[in-house]
Amino acid sequence: xxxxxYYFIFAVLLASCGQSANTAGKxxxxxxxxxxxxxxxxxELSFTQKEIEEYLKKxxxxxxxxTGGGSSVGITAxxxxxxxxxxxSRDLTTGExxxxxxxxxxxxxxxxxxxxxxxxxxxxxxxxxxxMKQLEDIYTGKIDHWNDLQGTNQKMSILSRxxxxxxYSYFKEHILEGKSYSSTITQLTSNGQxxxxxxxxxxxxxxxxxxxxxxxxxxxxxxFDGGKTFVEGKIENVKNNSYKIKRPLYYIFExxxxxxxxxxxxxxxxxxxxxxxxxxxxxxxx
Amino acid sequence: xxxxxxxxxxxxxxxxxxxxAITSITVLLIIIFLFDEGLSIFSKKPVDDDTVIAVNSSxxxxxxxxxxxxxxxxxxxxxxxxxGGKNDSIKLFRLDEAGTTFTEQQMGSNFERLAICVDSYxxxxxxxxxxxxxxxxxKDFHGKRIEIANITPYSFLMxxxxxxxxxxxxxxxxxxxxxxxxxxxLGAILFALPFGLATAIxxxxxxxxxxxxxxxxxxxxxxxxxxxxxxxxxxIVIVPAVQKIFNLPVGESGLAGSIVLGIxxxxxxxxxxxxxxxxxxRALKEASLALGASHWQTIRRVIVPxxxxxxxxxxxxxxxxxxxxxxxxxxxxxxxxxxxxxxxEPLRTIPAxxxxxxxxxxxxxxxxxxxxxxxxxxxxxxxxxxxxxEFIAKKKKY
Amino acid sequence: MxxxxxxxxxxxxxxxxxxxxxxIITSIVVLILCGILYFIFVRGxxxxxxxxxxxxxxxxxxxxxxxxxxxxTFCLIGGSMLFAFPxxxxxxxxxxxxxxxxxxxxxxxxxxxxxxxxPSIVFGLFGMALFVNKLKFGDSxxxxxxxxxxxxxxxxxxxxxxxxxxxxDAYRIASLALGASKLQTVRKVVLPIAFPNIxxxxxxxxxxxxxxxxxxxxxxxxxxLPRLPxxxxxxxxxxxxxLYVICTSGTDIVASRKMAxxxxxxxxxxVLISNILAGIVRSxxxxxxxI
Lengths: 286, 398, 291
Description:
The complex is a heterotrimer of chains A (286), B (398) and C (291).
Chain A: H1 2-23, E1 36-40, H2 42-58, E2 64-67, H3 71-80, E3 85-88, H4 94-103, E4 107-121, E5 129-131, H5 132-140, E6 157-161, H6 166-174, E7 186-188, H7 191-200, E8 204-209, E9 218-219, E10 221-223, H8 235-239, E11 246-254, H9 258-269, H10 271-279
Parallel strand pairs in A: 1-2, 1-3, 5-10, 6-7, 6-8
Antiparallel strand pairs in A: 3-11, 4-8, 4-9, 4-11
Chain B: H1 2-39, E1 51-55, E2 63-64, H2 66-73, E3 91-93, H3 95-101, H4 104-107, H5 114-124, E4 128-133, E5 144-145, E6 147-148, H6 153-158, E7 162-163, E8 171-172, H7 175-206, H8 209-224, H9 227-245, H10 254-278, H11 282-290, H12 295-306, H13 308-324, H14 327-332, H15 350-357, H16 366-396
Parallel strand pairs in B: 2-6, 3-4
Antiparallel strand pairs in B: 1-4, 1-5, 7-8
Chain C: H1 2-44, H2 50-54, E1 57-58, E2 63-64, H3 67-98, H4 103-117, H5 120-134, H6 141-165, H7 169-177, H8 182-211, H9 214-217, H10 239-248, H11 257-290
Antiparallel strand pairs in C: 1-2
């Protein structure tokens, strides 16, 4: 009996702790610390990480943490107040915009770079070009053999990103035109893993940010006019807009938090910051 | 003085009791949190709250399943006839299309007349399927709203499609994930059991002291190695090896996952079944040997049967480890949410799904709740395994 | 007579075959297990250096060191042990010394066993829901340590209980007979005897906590954070998460492979050291007690 009483007291104590912490206000404890938290797109990790390295050389007292996971991870964390800046490689959905609207206080969306999306295959693959229509058919599951594309008679292994990825959503919206991916595609967690996997297997196809392409994979040329002309997946072609799978990369933060976020964002947008963006294989914002 | 001491004793006992209560409270809290979030999914519709899906009022279709809507948006269903309507092609109308259908003059510069435009469009287009935010739907809407069935336990557990972020209707079917988990666990146990048991018998009965003294710490050390290191090893060694040996398009597959999990389950199975084998009373062994049985016959007919409940316990604990393993599986199985048909295809497990998707799921949203429901399933699985384990372990003590 | 010989020979042959099969299988298992260790050691050793252990990651995490991840992991170990160790030991004492066998005890035991069997990702799920979101700690050392602490709790309780169980009842009876109170008996007699085993349990659970990834994924871990933490509300890098990200989502997976091997080696070394330390503690106290 005695022990039951102890249990009860303890449970009440614990519950009241939880309650008081709950009523302590919506504001997250997080925002009180000096650390600037950046979270989100896996694509943006590569250049943001280098930006932080350089930024810290100039501001040795600053403290910045960077976490990946995907664009959606960043946006979710921003809505919940778990991060200061969300990196995203896609625009906000209407639902997400509404959420920010309900929270009150505006948000700032800064485009920090542009990125081309490359379709990659193994260098041993005979196929060099692909049309948008074929690409859509591959990822919705209508084509699954390379001989449909004048390749070898092998089954394709189709690689995609995880649903948390902004690249995944962008690809779905713009290449699949809103249709769902086929459920048999292999989902890998990052750009790097797709590059790695494609470089190892001769029958794989995947999509990654141009900034992650290396010499171990072959970038396919893409036809945006149904097979008449093919555009090579190269930075120059993205710059002159002939390669159309191009998307902006954003930093998003709350307006009333801009005092904390501005110094770093301004650095990224400065000349030296944009130089880092370019060397990382992305396209600078004019 | 004596009184003070008594009071102190009481206080200490109280503190001790509270500490002992923490594990129970934690388990209860975990159950409450998981099930509170997880079960609330069943009263929900698989669409965002402010989403409106509607058709022309003359359309005989009034109910659609989530799967049908997905097929319509994927353009696999293009005619109303396919889903019990009139012979008319389905015309999708989304927010994106508003900009191309109406002029800015019609909509108004701040979209203040968009609702009226939408309403009239629905009225004059018999084959329309409208997917819009409720913000732009007028109060006196002339279309017919489509009822979407709530998520039921049946549709959740038996659904074959896992597209938690699909628009407009999320597809929350966890069957592929459950089967993927069980499939990869089965493979792991099939691999680990013969190896683990043989090693345990060798260590308990055949090897001499010296060899055993070397083996034991190695096995213990391997039990302590973090799963992410096993995953790393799997990613670098096992995945490419599986791909080469079986000539697969990609090495990330159920087989690679099973091998990695099997290796991880080995130390658990070896340690526990070796302990069980060792508990065989000396008298039993010696009686068997005295009757003229060889050492091997004694092992086969006396020791293993005597230790069978302990060995079963080891297997069950091994299964428990394998089911809940997250990082290694996430790294090597390829994560395709399909019902597995062979070990050579990528598959996706419940823990890997939670680890990969929890970060993006908005707190309290549908996807978030679905992941908690997955956590519930996982919790129930391991809970049952634990109960069986305890039952067997208890039975052993007589 | 001939038949008897035959049977004996058959027995010998079948035993020989069976034993050699077991021997072969065991060698395969040992080969696999040692192969993993050997692989990580050989590949990881070249990466090891003082600089690797004590400098910040640079150049897109393909160069430099893993200092912040090591510090972060130690912060998490410290934080989780600060929480789990006292509670675990106290509840172990309560369960073994105070609580009599009965329904309540078997209930608590069942709960403890169940907590031990809960998959680590479920701890992550729970930690995120309770500490990060409900209590608004955010992604922080605090949230991560508490989550890891809960994970380590059942292990510590179990080892404490085992350690106390191994203390002979004669000591307790003798102490009580001399007029000592229960508390005095526990404090002055039982605990000192059980202390080495409790300590080994603690050391081993440190090894386990240091390598857990799933619970910290959503509660504390950062991808890149080249600063040491200032407060318990900061995020930190941690070794297991660091290994996970640089072998799956680094900026250049192949170039950072060397770092990955090094990190894996450090993780294994932490486990190895904690195992060896536990062994030393155990043998030191056995020797001391004999004298």
